[in-house]
Amino acid sequence: MRNDDLTCGRENDLIGFLYGELNEVEATAFQRHLRECETCNAELADLGEVRESVVAWRNESVGSVAFPAQVTASSRTEAPRATPSAMTALRQFFNLSPLWMKGAVAFAAILFCVFAGLALARLREAPPAVVAATPGATNTSPAELKALIDQRVREELNRIKKSEATAAAPLTANAQKTAVKRTANRNTQVALSAASQKARRPLSKTEREQLANDLRLVSAKSDSELDLLDDRINQ
Amino acid sequence: MGTATSDEQIVERALTGDAEAFGEIVQRWERRIFVLSFGMLGREEDARDATQETFLAAFRNLRAFRGEAKVSSWLHRIAVNQCITRQRRAKVRSESALDTEEEKNAASFAAPIGYSPARMAEGRETSAAVRLAVNSLPVELRQVVVMKEFEELTFKEIADALDLPLSTVKSRLYTALKQLQMRLAKFG
């Protein structure tokens, strides 16, 4: 199978020399062999060209690839890097993801946003609590909340009072009329009572004379001579 | 003088529940695994997918890592397996679409999808020829070339990663370069 092997059988040394991986003794020995072996000389030159072509292709292809971590193979002996965060590692790991996976993640993110939006909208539409019904009450402090509740209570009480007053207005008018009537009746009664009191009180002589004159019953000068029954009763 | 935390120590932290530890492993190795995948597959998109799958597989099998091999070797092995799997799938998909005998020969070791000699003739001929030549190498040869030229690993590191004797790595690399020489001469 190995018909392309060197006749001198030093393929491994040639490869080691080509890649600079022979130690000093081995390298010196192979250089001595190269002076004598034309086949190895030609082979070394040919394989060197092949190698250059491969390296050129590598530099052209891999060098043009955008890659997050700028770590080259030749920098393996560099100082240890700072420990990356989980997010950084994930981000870089994601950069390596195939397109379908990126698409799936993007789709999942969009779905998440849509559902979150719907959930928020639903929360806003839900029947709010008593306090939440007050405009701007969502961020009130306990003191402001108490003041708002007091104000609401006062407003509600005023409203109830007004409605009661409105309902009681005709009643009051009737009551006033009734009161006026009652007052009038009471005045009448008082007047009658006063009159009856007056009537029951015995008239004085002057009053009697005045009354007699008004009624033109008797002459004034004979009034004292009259034997009035009332006088006797009263006396 | 700071002491660098070894990959093995970071993996131990990850195994004990440190959520950020595996991120550090990704941070350290993603570039090299990507380069390896790119060399193996020849397409950026495929290489990104393979890199992603490599770290996912590594994360899933983290508990199976016993520390007998180096983390780098373990990751390389996973990456190479991922690339081989992808190439097998690509080969099945692309074989039916290939018409010419030349294309079939070029694709006999899973040529990159969507590639053709006609495209190769347009500009960047050398790079395109090398790319096609590398991608037409058998997997066991290609991975050695890629690990050496793209990742600049030493023979010892490649031997560790692939669990091969050092001499086998050297002879495989020699054979790979010889085959590339012949293929490039044919393209040229």
SSE map:
The complex is a heterodimer of chains A (235) and B (188).
Chain A (H helix, E strand, L loop, with lengths): L10 H8 L5 H13 L1 H26 L22 H10 L3 H27 L16 H59 L4 H11 L13 H6 L1
Helix pairs in contact in A: 1-3
Chain B lengths: L6 H9 L5 H21 L2 H17 L10 H25 L5 H6 L10 H5 L3 H11 L3 H11 L5 H8 L3 H22 L1
Helix pairs in contact in B: 1-2, 2-3, 2-4, 2-8, 3-4, 4-9, 7-10, 8-10, 9-10
Task: Write up this protein.
The complex is a heterodimer of chains A (235) and B (188). By secondary structure, chain A is mainly alpha-helical. Among the domains of chain A are: 11-61, no CATH class; 141-200; 205-234, no CATH class. Chain A contains 8 helices and no strands. In chain A, helix 1 crosses helix 3 (38-63). Chain A is rod-shaped and about 190 Å long. Mean pLDDT of chain A is 70; it is low at 68-82 and 130-137. Chain B has a single domain (8-187), classed as Rna Polymerase Sigma Factor, Chain: A (Orthogonal Bundle), CATH 1.10.1740. The model of chain B is unreliable at 98-115 and 119-123 (pLDDT under 50). In chain B, helix 2 runs antiparallel to helix 3 (44-60) and helix 2 (21-41) crosses helix 4. With 188 residues, chain B is an all-alpha fold. Chains A and B meet through helix 1, helix 3 and helix 4 of A and helix 2, helix 3, helix 7, helix 8 and helix 10 of B.
Helical segment count of chain A: 8
- The helix/strand series of chain B, from N terminus to C terminus, equals HHHHHHHHHH
Which overall shape of chain A is indicated by the principal axes computed on the Cα atoms?
Answer: rod-shaped
> What's the overall average pLDDT of chain A, rounded?
70
* CATH topology-level fold name of chain B: Rna Polymerase Sigma Factor, Chain: A
Could you tell me how far the N terminus lies from the C terminus of chain B, measured between alpha carbons in angstroms?
52 Å
Helicity level of chain B: over 70%
Percent of sequence in beta strands of chain B: under 5%
Largest interface: A-B, 49 and 52 residues
- The helix/strand class of chain A is mainly alpha
Helix content of chain A: 55-70%
> Describe the biggest sheet of chain A?
none
Low-confidence stretches of chain B: 98-115, 119-123
Radius of gyration of chain B equals 18 Å
Count, helices of chain B: 10
Question: In the CATH hierarchy, what is the class of chain B?
Answer: Mainly Alpha
Q: What form of chain B results from the Cα inertia axes? A: globular
Number of strands of chain A: 0
